[in-house]
From TrEMBL:
Record GO terms (molecular function): AMP nucleosidase activity
Keywords: Cytokinin biosynthesis, Hydrolase
GO CC annotation terms, alphabetical: cytosol
Record organism: Taylorella asinigenitalis 14/45
UniProt-recorded name of the protein: Cytokinin riboside 5'-monophosphate phosphoribohydrolase
């Protein structure tokens, strides 16, 4: 049984490594990329869908590559905004029981079996993170970004929370729970920007990019 489990784990490690290598090969020429995270459950008539599309449209028009998880909801809106202005719209797709189809607004699609290789690909290819309201997966992506940037395992990057009312409770917890108890430092709060406005998102991203002049081929986890 132990030997069988060991072989299974080794096989998974090999598959994960293969997914990472495949993704790196497909994205080797991608520059000025950023990720948009958020709920898969948002419908097309939701104001958040329209806001996400507007944010993506503005960023893509400014020359930025948009990366999403390739699914419905916020992910679809992110790809759609870039698609509408003929921008580079990447989907990092993964098959889930409740998400059986990928959205049709991707100019480049990459497919994953494992969350770990998919999420690593996000952080290896993004130097800005836009976080729309969402569920557990969105929280996972947010705190992964915060942890990687805070610890210096990823390049410093804008982490923008869109939807001040939605994020208020979490920010209160971070300030009154984590910061107040000394679990994070006051400077860690500076990693986060909060806005409700698409133009403000564009301003934060473009100003950061102009000031930092990062090597466009040295993004994320390099």
């Amino acid at each position: 049984m132990v030997e069988l489990r060991s072989k299974t784990i080794q096989g998974q490690i090999t598959e994960i490594a293969g997914e990472l290598q495949d993704a790196a090969s497909h994205l080797k020429n991608v520059t000025q990329a950023l990720s948009i995270f958020g709920s898969a459950r948002i419908k097309q008539d939701d104001p958040l869908y329209a806001l996400t599309t507007d944010i993506s449209r503005k960023l893509a028009s400014a020359g930025f590559t948009i990366i999403s998880g390739g699914g419905p909801g916020i992910m679809e809106a992110a790809n759609r905004g870039a698609h509408e202005v003929n921008g580079h719209s990447i989907g990092l797709n993964i098959k889930l029981p409740h998400e059986t189809t990928n959205n049709p607004y991707q100019s480049q699609s990459i497919y994953f079996k494992y969350f770990v290789s998919r999420k690593t690909t996000f952080f290896m290819n993004s130097w800005a993170y836009i976080i729309m309201p969402g569920g557990f997966g969105t929280m996972d992506e947010l705190f992964e970004a915060l942890t990687l940037v805070q610890t210096g395992k990823a390049n410093k990057a804008p982490i923008i929370l869109v939807g001040s009312e939605f994020w208020k409770g979490l920010l209160d917890f971070i300030k009154n729970g984590q910061l107040a108890n000394g679990y994070i430092s006051p400077k860690d709060l500076d990693l986060i920007s909060v806005t409700d406005d698409a133009d403000e998102v564009l301003k934060i991203v473009t100003e950061y990019y102009a000031k930092n002049h990062q090597n466009p081929h040295c993004l994320g986890l390099c």
